[in-house]
Model the fold of this input.
Amino acid sequence: MQLTFSGAAREVTGSCHILDVGGKTILLDCGLFQGRRAESRRKNEVLPLPVDRIDAIVLSHAHIDHAGRLPFLVRQGYTGPIHATAATRDLCALMLADSARIQVKDAEFLAKRHQEHAEPLYGPEDASQVIRQMIGLPYDRWFDVVPGVRAMFVDAGHILGSASVIVECTEADRTVRLVFSGDVGRKGLAIIRDPHPPTDADVVIMESTYGNRDHLPITDARAALGAVIRETAARGGRVIIPAFAVGRVQELVYDLHALARAAEIPRLPIYVDSPLATGATEIFETHPECFDRTEDLVKAVDELFHFDLVHYTRDVMESKSLNAMHGPLIIISPSGMAESGRVLHHLSHAASDPRNTILVVGFMAEHTLGRRIVEKRPTLRIFGADVALKAHVEILNGYSAHADRTELTDWLDAVKRTSPRLGKVLLVHGESPAQDALIASLKTRGYSVSAPAAGDRCVL
Done:
């Protein structure tokens, strides 16, 4: 039995880990690489391995950096099963279709710029075929993956449907239990349940996005959001929030709903400007079984994501009209790292006005526009033009859906308490500074821990 690390190895995006056992090969995730356009495209065009060698895929959740290359595998001939939770399957139907649209548009852009044919990474039919091959499964129930391998999803508390995966491998009368964390969420996140640490692990693959820092307490994030809105409204400005369409948008709408009910923010119009986010919100509403029934707002109202201040835009003309409006307002728009989508238009209009606020509520990977906003670069490059950054930039890491270093350590400690044979801990999904700091911290706690690079192999 062995693992090979193909993506999210010493970096955050492109999650993909290859498990070989008993002559069978299983992929854990197959996500898109994101960042510099040309570099990411080169990485995305390289298959983790030939499709005729892949026997099954197990998917942790629907975010594109975990699921976004699945249509490319299908386009290249993969016909096998893809295992996921039921909510992940529903979200993937929406998100992969949107990703396919972006792939086609990117290819058209490249062809226009370079006057040569550019093939999209995949198209809408490939995304649809992924869903036909995807098997929606419940939490906390074993399922067979390939002969000699079974798996179970447990709630990772990251986004709707997200899972950590227990993979039990048997070969030559020996059984090894591998735990793949997926993306670990946080206790107390709005809407969804808290993470449920797996048990009885021999080897753990653990994400490490925030391995070198702690977030603001979740309880402080809503108050900080309210303060940003009040201050921006007092200046007569607008709040622009780049946010992931799945998870983050719904969490923000939920907290704005709670703030409005408590009269802790002015009664400003709130626009969710994204068909993808609107569709994702509808999917959230069809999976109330994933909601945390202990939360006050969940108990108090039937319509979590609909109240009198919030508006969901769908067509392009309505989106464009937002930039002509006067007076304070709030616009929430993907993409989360400000790399594509309608948020670019809003940033190009809002960034140069010091009355406005750009509110960052999640991780921004290297080489993205979102990272340059976080760094408060004096000039931003948007649609090929230089835009002065004079708007206020506020960063609320309390809204991250990723566990921070303390929460990751607590999650791993909980796994260890039920795992007397725990050996290796392998860190993925993190940049080098975060991983190096977490390695040093975990070693002082007695863990055998490392961060594999792309192409590294580990014998189980």
Notes: The mean pLDDT is 94. The chain has two domains: 2-213+401-459, 218-399. The chain has 14 helices and 22 strands.
